[in-house]
Amino acid sequence: MNSFELNIFIDRPKREVYEHVSEPINMIGLLPRLTTIDILKEQKDANGVVLRPFYTLEPFRLAGIPIFRNRVYTVIHLTRPSNEMEFHLFNKPNIKIVFRYFFNETDERRTHLIQRVNFEQVNKLMENFVFNHALTAQRAFLTNLKIRLEKN
């Protein structure tokens, strides 16, 4: 349960896909449960890597009624601009997940986006729920990203 990998081809140039994913505001509409985003000030780490931190709010519903509002802290690390980035997600109770994105361009100027998800810290009691939630959310993220970018 430590990791999974997803990938998708998007009929847009690599740079365009990378720039879209690298902006926190663009997460609205890509992540299925996301309702609110609070973007914090961009920073750089000790190695000069650009960091884009933000908070999101994801309500969980039971019979359509919000029963819990989950506040999630995420930091985008622009590790290799135009080629790779990482999302470091921190959640309660003691959950840390790293989403690594690899952007490759085909000869037809399509983007092959590979996403590797590593669960670095997850409570054993929540393990299956967290894994299933992450898998469902990331499949939706990639599908919504493809639809959004290809309709232009």
List keywords for this structure.
single chain; 152 residues; alpha+beta; 8-stranded antiparallel β-sheet; 48% strand
What would you note in describing this structure?
This protein has helices spanning 14-21, 127-150; strands spanning 3-10, 36-39, 43-44, 50-62, 65-80, 84-91, 95-105, 111-121. The protein contains two helices and eight strands. Strands 1, 2, 3, 4, 5, 6, 7 and 8 form an eight-stranded antiparallel β-sheet that branches. A hairpin with a 5-residue loop joins strand 3 (43-44) and strand 4 (50-62). It is α+β, with helices and mostly antiparallel strands and 152 residues long. 21% of the residues lie in helices and 48% in strands. The N and C termini lie far apart (37 Å).
Radius of gyration, CA atoms, in whole angstroms: 15 Å
- The amount of beta strand, in percent, is over 45%
Q: Globular, elongated, flat, extended or rod-shaped: what is the shape? A: globular
What structural class do helix, strand and pairing data support? alpha+beta
What's the main sheet like? 8 strands, antiparallel
Order of helices and strands: EHEEEEEEEH
β-strand number: 8
Query: Helix count?
Result: 2
Task: Please state the average pLDDT score.
Answer: 91
Helix content: 10-25%
